[in-house]
Amino acid sequence: MSIKASSMDSTARVLRFGMVGGGQGAFIGDVHRKGATLDALAALTAGCFSRNFENTLATGALWGVESDRLYRTYEEMAQKEAAREDGIDFAVIVTPNNTHYPAAKAFLEQGIHVVCDKPLALTSKQGEELKALAEQKGLLFCVTYTYVGYPMVRQMREMIQNGDIGAIRVVTGRYIQGWLATELECDGQKQASWRCDPAQSGISNATGDIGTHLENLISYATGLKIQSLCANLRPVGGNRKLDNEAEILVRYEGGATGMMWASQVAIGHDNDLRIMVCGEKGTIEWEQENPNYLRVDMLGEPTRTLSRGNGYFYPVVNAMNRIPAGHVEGHFTAFGNVYKAFCVALTNHMAGKEASDLYYPGLDAGIEGNRFVEKCVESTERGVVWVDF
Ligand SMILES: NC(=O)c1ccc[n+]([C@@H]2O[C@H](COP(=O)([O-])OP(=O)(O)OC[C@H]3O[C@@H](n4cnc5c(N)ncnc54)[C@H](O)[C@@H]3O)[C@@H](O)[C@H]2O)c1
């Protein structure tokens, strides 16, 4: 799942992709569109942007997609694009959670590579099925855990892998938001409505929606594997059936321990994702709302703040920069970095070439996310007890 950007064939053509979801009024589809096209490695060529065809037509017109590449269903899109000589190379799935698995399956079955947002599926079993299908067909699959696309997160990973802070003792992470402090879903707010609905969201809301980001970020940055966890998931407010507040204790293989907090009812917090890793020689901290900086505290030394874009980073981190230090990069460029890694890998894959050091999360990361949700729900339902991972 690693590739060397410099090893990409410079004469390769621009990849073609189609999108499922992202119609007018949606959130993350447009962010994907911008991230995927940031490096001109791919172009949006087809779409089924909504279950409402009028919305698909309007969105396609706005985004410059030819009308004969706009489809009523993702099944139709998968079949017709697979039959075209100039059909899409990959499909991007940015619908509510319950559609991820059937849509991904439809494209894989037609021999089309897939990029799918998290959580990968409704269950880890569905994720395993997608993995088996992708392997059988020889297709690439990216799960867009956005935060691995930040250069400072990659620096954190490189520092930990190189032993800069020694063996890890404790990891804390929180992903807290306040947007569901009131019952927004009762007002018909689109993003709140499906997230609070078990039929569309799955067995969890907050743990699946933002807890999986936290789990993946910690796993990527530290390399730690969860051994067991103890979770307290709660619906807060009204008649909600799914959690929007979760506190999770973790034991990692090798002896480190951790605490995670995922919340959608933390008033005053917009998208407050941060992690802190304490090792035997030092501590590293990163905050998503201030993503260009990394705080490093080495034993017996003053606090250091590393600033993205300067010359003192590991080389692979510098390769993720787009503009000089002090010019703020963020969410769009993080998506751009995930897409760049995927598009270079796909271009090399299509040319029968191997890869190396840019990273995109794949099916194993997606399956791990679904398993994390399942284990958190199991722990809660059994009375907030420790469960093996
Ligand atoms: N990676 C991230 O940082 C990130 C951020 C936000 C959301 N997400 C994930 O992205 C997904 C979408 O979230 P959102 O907030 O953009 O939701 P949203 O409700 O804003 O958008 C969903 C879109 O999917 C469309 N849709 C639903 N079913 C469809 C179908 N069968 N065919 C075609 N289109 C269909 C809807 O019409 C809508 O346009 C979720 O799985 C969510 O977890 C990821």
What is the count of β-strands? 16
Q: How much is the average pLDDT? A: 96
Morphology call: globular
Tell me the CATH topology of the largest domain: Dihydrodipicolinate Reductase, domain 2
* Alpha carbon gap, first and last residue: 24 Å
Give an account of the 3D structure.
This protein folds into two domains: 166 residues, Rossmann fold, CATH 3.40.50.720; 196 residues, 2-Layer Sandwich (Dihydrodipicolinate Reductase, domain 2), CATH 3.30.360.10. Helices cover 35% and strands 23% of the residues. Helix 1 packs across helix 11, helix 5 runs antiparallel to helix 12 and helix 9 crosses helix 12. The radius of gyration is 21 Å and the shape is globular. The N terminus is likely disordered. Nicotinamide-adenine-dinucleotide binds next to helix 1 and helix 7.
Per-chain topology:
Blueprint: E1 2-3, E2 15-20, H1 28-37, E3 42-48, H2 53-63, H3 74-83, E4 90-93, H4 100-109, E5 113-116, H5 124-137, E6 141-143, H6 151-161, E7 168-176, H7 190-195, H8 198-201, H9 206-222, E8 226-234, E9 245-252, E10 257-263, E11 272-279, E12 282-287, E13 293-298, E14 304-307, H10 315-318, H11 331-350, E15 358-359, H12 363-381, E16 386-388
Parallel strand pairs: 2-3, 2-4, 4-5, 5-6, 7-10
Antiparallel strand pairs: 1-15, 7-11, 8-9, 8-16, 9-10, 11-12, 12-13, 13-14
This protein binds nicotinamide-adenine-dinucleotide (NAD).
